[in-house]
Design brief:
Layout lengths: L6 H24 L5 H23 L9 H22 L5 H7 L3 H11 L7 H18 L10 H24 L7 H23 L11 H27 L1 H4 L2 H17 L5 H16 L16
């Protein structure tokens, strides 16, 4: 199936379903009031350990000092900043709205690709971006009956996460040597994130006792770390083989599955504005069609 034209679709669907579940897990993780910096730190430590094991088993370099700038940029844009914003926002929003906001990733990805002249401006894609922004306004402007009076600000904060992911997508596709192994990339970025966050957690004094590891919050974070690790590997592979715009269509699946997970786990009920936002967002995404990436090929490796 490795060379099958269906492989990219299989990867983004699987990654989307897995990622969609992490929004509900984030609500569980933040329910006991554990500080977001601690949650993010714990998550990256688990992810780093997981990737170190993968690299050792596969005999792939764990970390190369000359690639520290790459690791650091991806650690900031793809791990630290979005994770912190999500964990700060989670107590104020619900899983459905969290998942809808990530749908803006392909819209921002295309906008950045166009601004940097990696993509041509096409009218229907521009309309797709406008529809995506309209969908966000449908979440921000009306009263969504959420418990937080600052919910609209937290929605915009999560949209900022999508911007970070979009910049990361473009950088992976256009700014990194095609021969760089995905496993090394993810391992190195998680190691850098760990080096940044663990001392920060200690300095802030937001650590938790060892017994916390057995709490629902810790178990939820552990599940997020492992499932995100799997999803990231599939997603990054898709970026390098099918292009960042195509890979970002994973947001379709993330949004739908995220809403469904929230309904199944928390019995979430959404307003008409939320469902209208979903419909408008889906229409916008449909207009931002995948870009052809003829000849793009990832270095030979096994995921």
């Amino acid at each position: 199936m490795r060379n099958s034209p269906l492989l990219p679709y299989f990867l983004i669907i699987t990654a989307g379903v897995v990622w969609g579940g992490t929004f509900s897990l984030a609500l569980i993780a933040t329910a006991d009031g554990t500080h977001p910096v601690m949650l993010t730190s714990y998550q990256v430590v688990i992810s780093a350990i997981f990737f170190i094991g993968i690299c050792l088993y596969s005999r792939v370099p764990l970390f190369r000092l000359q690639r520290l700038p790459i690791y650091t940029l991806l650690a900031l844009l793809g791990i630290i900043l979005p994770d912190l914003l999500y964990y700060f926002a989670a107590p104020h929003l619900n899983a459905g709205i969290l998942s809808i906001t990530v749908s803006t990733v392909p819209l921002f990805t295309y906008a950045i690709m166009w601004a940097m002249r990696y993509e041509q401006m096409i009218l229907k894609r521009a309309l797709g971006i406008l529809l995506g922004m309209t969908a966000i306004l449908l979440l921000v402007l009306p009263d969504q009956e959420l418990s937080s009076i600052n919910a609209s600000y937290w929605i915009l904060a999560v949209v900022l996460c999508a911007v970070c992911y979009a910049i990361e997508n473009v950088y992976i596709s256009e700014g990194i040597n095609i021969d760089l192994d995905i496993r090394e990339l993810l391992c190195g970025s998680n190691i850098v994130a760990t080096i940044i966050l663990v001392p920060t957690t200690a300095w802030m004094g937001v650590g938790v006792p060892v017994s916390w590891i057995l709490t629902p919050a810790a178990l939820a974070i552990s599940t997020i770390a492992l499932s995100s690790t799997l999803a990231y590997m599939m997603f990054f592979y898709t970026i390098r083989t099918a292009g960042p715009v195509f890979a970002s269509q994973c947001a379709y699946i993330v949004t739908i599955s995220g809403i469904l997970w929230g309904i199944i786990i928390f019995a979430e009920v959404h307003t008409i504005w939320v469902w209208l936002s979903v419909a408008v967002m889906m229409a916008g995404l449909a207009l931002v069609t995948p870009a052809a990436r003829a000849g793009t090929k990832l270095a030979e490796q096994t995921i």
